[in-house]
Design goal:
The complex is a heterodimer of chains A (661) and B (137).
Chain A (H helix, E strand, L loop, with lengths): L9 H10 L9 H14 L3 E7 L3 E8 L6 E3 L5 H7 L3 E3 L12 H4 L6 E8 L5 E9 L7 H43 L3 E6 L4 E4 L1 H7 L3 H4 L10 H11 L8 E8 L5 E10 L5 E8 L1 H23 L3 E6 L4 E4 L1 H7 L3 H4 L4 H5 L15 H8 L3 E9 L5 E13 L2 E11 L1 H36 L8 H32 L7 E4 H18 L3 E5 L4 E4 L1 H18 L5 E9 L2 E7 L25 H5 L4 H11 L3 E5 L6 E7 L4 H4 L2 H8 L1
Parallel strand pairs in A: 18-20
Antiparallel strand pairs in A: 1-2, 1-6, 2-3, 4-5, 5-6, 7-8, 7-11, 9-10, 10-11, 12-13, 12-16, 14-15, 15-16, 17-19, 20-21, 21-23, 22-23
Chain B lengths: L3 E5 L3 H14 L3 E5 L2 H10 L4 E5 L7 H10 L8 E5 L4 H7 L6 E4 L4 H12 L16
Parallel strand pairs in B: 1-2, 1-3, 3-4, 4-5
The chains are: A alpha+beta (661), B alpha/beta (137).
Chain lengths: 661, 137
């Protein structure tokens, strides 16, 4: 016996058999009618329509055998038909090598002859065979073979019919699904035929137009569209098949009389018979667009009018926005800046002429770390190579936590600097000019008061004292103003050296000793002799101002205490008096120019109102701090200074051990 | 013998006040010059025991005048004191690099000016006709 061969495409073929959905189903009259006809016409005791999958043959319909009988593939006659893809005609199984010892021939059902013709499914695969068989050898004439073949055509027609029914069902489901989709989309969908008549609309279309679907279907869109829009839509609908969807903005006249802007997208079927128009109400979008446009124009005006240069850069430093002021600042067109690498073009050098690398630039940190920076004084280069002194801020731009760039706001401070310088120079000149006549005024008063030019009546002495102390105050005021203007202009240079704190304090105390003596104020000094990194003269000046205040505000017979406290890396000098103290609300003000706590106090009037601002400025120039502390009685001023950087001064031997441990 | 001083300052009021203090309080005799050129002319007539020289003067300033004074015969070693309104430490230090015995700052007190000058020059304390610190009440 020879087992049937397995066709190369048997997996796909077997699947096609499965798709027929006939295996293991009950008998059907439409197939039984065929097998009955075959048996009668060809006078055969057995006629079977067998389906053959990859492991068996199964009788969908049979005469002379039970419907549903199956045989395994190995012994299947019909599997040979499938394998050969052609008729298998066996007049006598006993004389055929392939079937002589086939169990179906030797045992049940005892076949001696077999004639099978392949049956193709709707997709062209051979799905089985229609066959007749008998228990005696016989021949099959050409006419008889033709009958068998014709009846195979009938079977195939039945199978095709199944497929058509299945297709129709599929189409119905598809259509339902499509309708479900179109009715659920928010956009209005209107289907037109080639004549421009509406054939279908979805729920959104009735909502958009205000017309019922019955009012729309069968009509054109004429009454829903103003003339201009109607013409434009008609133009689209009569162009024949569209190779891609076309969009257009139109006006729609709703049934309630409102006109709304709509955006339509028109597509057509390949043959141009059906047009699908998807429309959406864009009035909200229009409103947003108008608002956006209005905002955009407003910001544009603001940016254009801004005196500050405003520059947007990408995260890799290229300019993507520049306002007109930016062009003026950098000596170029704002358009000329676009696309430029700002740092490389305009920020490449420090003020001292050394190269300025991008990675050192605060703006680089802004775009890498997303942190804003304010820079008080740097140099930008203009297009002609000249320098411009600017202060600027760089602010990161975020998109979803990711830095996408930065906005730089730059201000030319050259003019302001020049103004400051001129102002300082003016104050300085005025002060000098004031000092000379004051010197002679003070001198003349002193000589007269000293009796150099003759005896002075007692009443005149008092007046002279007043004139003299007023002159003194005027001189102090001029000196302080001169100092401040120098500090502002930056012409006071500190010359810090390792300086003995005790010596500085002693010098300052000596300077106010006379004034203290006059009103009976004691000055107690208990200061550690540490070394500080300071300009001795300037530190004496700052301390003198503090001590002068302390003495002036002390009650007669009071005590001013100067002490020091050492901390890690710094030393704090404390100047304490027993005066009225500093009111809480004046703590900040007293460090401002002419910001005395109580200007009605006669003692305030003897000061210049500049002592504390000068002292603070000087202390801060030393990298220190000056502030008012808390005191139950009187006031306490704290002056903190960094200790000298020299190692032997900075560390006591104990501390060195501790560090080494 | 009365000590003789030359006071050089372009400001008349200063000349008057400082001169009066030196004369009446210090008991010195004082010649007054209004400019460096004036001073050099006066030096050719009389050589003083010391010179008080203003630093900031229009035309020939104090340091330049000092250089020229040293060229005048007999004036090579006359002690000179600078008078200055600038009291910045750096400026004082710079002025002290010149051939002077000291730098006196303005404003000064004419009642004690003579004493300060005497101190700088190493002279005995002045005892002029009007030399008195405190007036009698």
């Amino acid at each position: 016996m020879r087992a049937p061969a397995i066709p190369a495409d048997d997996r796909a073929r077997s699947a096609a058999v499965g798709r027929l959905a006939l295996l293991d189903t009950p008998s059907e009259e439409r197939f039984d009618r065929i097998t009955r006809t075959v048996a009668r016409l060809l006078d055969a005791p057995i006629a079977v329509l067998n389906l053959v999958d990859d492991h068996r043959q199964w009788a969908k319909s049979a005469v002379g055998m039970s419907q549903g009988t199956e045989f395994e593939h190995r012994v299947s006659f019909c599997a040979h038909v499938v394998a050969d893809a052609g008729p298998v005609l066996v007049s006598d199984t006993a004389r055929d090598e392939r079937f002589r010892d086939n169990p179906m021939a030797l045992q049940e059902p005892g076949l001696r002859c077999y004639f099978g013709v392949p049956v193709k499914g709707p997709d062209g695969h051979i799905v089985g065979s229609l066959c007749i068989a008998g228990h005696e050898p016989r021949e099959l004439s050409d006419d008889e073979f033709a009958v068998l073949s014709d009846l195979v055509g009938w079977v195939e027609a039945e199978l095709e019919h199944d497929r058509l029914i299945a297709l129709t069902e599929e189409e119905r489901q598809l259509r339902e699904r499509l309708q479900a989709i179109t009715s659920s989309v928010g956009d209005a969908v209107v289907v037109f035929d080639a004549a421009g008549t509406i054939t279908d609309v979805n729920a959104a279309a009735t909502a958009l137009t205000g017309y019922e679907s019955a009012e729309l279907i069968g009509n054109d869109l004429g009454r829903s569209l103003p003339e201009d829009s109607r013409q434009r839509l008609e133009h689209l609908l009569t162009r024949g098949a569209l190779d891609k969807p076309v969009s257009e903005e139109l006006e729609l006249a709703r049934r309630d009389g409102d006109t709304v802007p709509i955006e339509v997208t028109v597509s057509s079927t390949l043959d141009g018979d059906t047009y699908i128009v998807v429309a959406r109400d864009v009035s909200q979008r229009r409103r947003h667009q108008r608002t956006l446009e209005k905002l955009r124009r407003r910001y544009e005006v603001i940016l254009d009018a801004a005196a500050e240069a405003i520059i947007g850069i990408t995260s890799d430093g290229f300019v993507d926005y520049a306002n007109p002021a930016a062009g003026r600042l950098l000596g170029t067109d704002p358009e000329g800046l676009l696309g430029q690498n700002l740092h490389e073009r305009h920020h490449h050098h420090h003020a001292d002429g050394t190269p300025y690398h991008w990675h050192e630039c605060p703006t680089a940190r802004t775009v890498t770390e997303g942190v804003a920076h304010d820079v008080l004084d740097e140099i930008y280069s203009r297009s002609d190579g000249s320098k411009v002194e600017v202060e600027y801020s760089s602010t990161p731009l975020f998109d979803d936590e990711r830095v996408t760039g930065a906005v730089l706001v730059l201000r030319d401070i050259g003019a302001r600097r020049e103004g400051d310088r001129l102002k300082s120079q003016f104050v300085s000149t005025v002060s000098h000019e004031l000092r000379t006549p004051l010197t002679s005024l003070r001198g003349a008063l002193s000589l007269v008061r000293g009796g150099v030019v003759g005896d002075i009546p007692a009443e005149a002495l008092e007046l002279l004292d007043t004139a003299q102390s007023s002159t003194d105050r005027l001189i102090r005021l001029v000196n302080d103003l001169l100092d401040l203007s120098r500090l502002d202009a930056g012409v006071i240079e500190l010359h810090p050296t390792a300086t003995s704190l005790a010596t500085v304090v002693a010098t300052a105390v000596a300077g106010v000793r006379t004034a203290a003596g006059e009103i009976g104020v004691e000055i107690d000094v208990e200061v550690a002799d540490v070394s500080v990194h300071a300009d001795a003269d300037r530190l004496v000046q700052a301390l003198t101002n503090l001590l002068g205040n302390a003495v002036r505000f002390s009650p007669p017979g009071g005590t001013v205490t100067v002490s020091s406290e050492q901390d890690a890396g710094c030393v704090t000098i404390e100047v304490r008096d027993m005066g009225p103290g500093v009111p809480d609300d004046a703590r900040a003000r007293i460090f401002e120019r002419f910001g005395q706590a109580d200007s009605s106090d006669a003692r305030s009037r003897t000061g210049t109102g500049l002592g504390l601002p000068i002292a603070r400025e000087l202390v801060e120039r030393h990298g220190g701090r000056l502030w008012v502390g808390d005191a139950p009685v009187g006031s306490v001023f704290n002056l903190e200074l960094p200790l000298s950087a020299a190692p032997e001064d900075a560390w006591s031997s104990d501390e060195v051990e501790e560090v080494g441990r | 013998m009365t000590r003789h001083l030359l006071l050089v300052d372009d400001d008349e009021a200063i000349r008057s006040v400082a001169g009066l203090g030196l004369e009446r309080v210090g008991g010195y005799s004082v010649d007054r010059a209004a400019s460096g050129v004036d001073a050099l002319r006066m030096l050719r007539e009389r050589i003083p025991d010391a010179i008080l020289l203003d630093v900031m003067m229009p035309g020939v300033d104090g340091p330049t005048t000092l250089g020229r004074i040293r060229q005048v015969e007999g004036c090579g070693h006359v002690p000179v004191i600078f008078l200055t309104a600038k009291l910045q430490p750096a400026e004082v230090a710079w002025l002290e690099t010149f051939d002077v015995v000291g730098v006196l700052g303005k404003p000064f007190d004419p009642m004690t000016l003579a004493e300060e000058v005497a101190n700088m020059l190493g002279w005995e304390p002045p005892r002029g006709p009007g030399a008195q610190r405190e007036p009698s009440r």
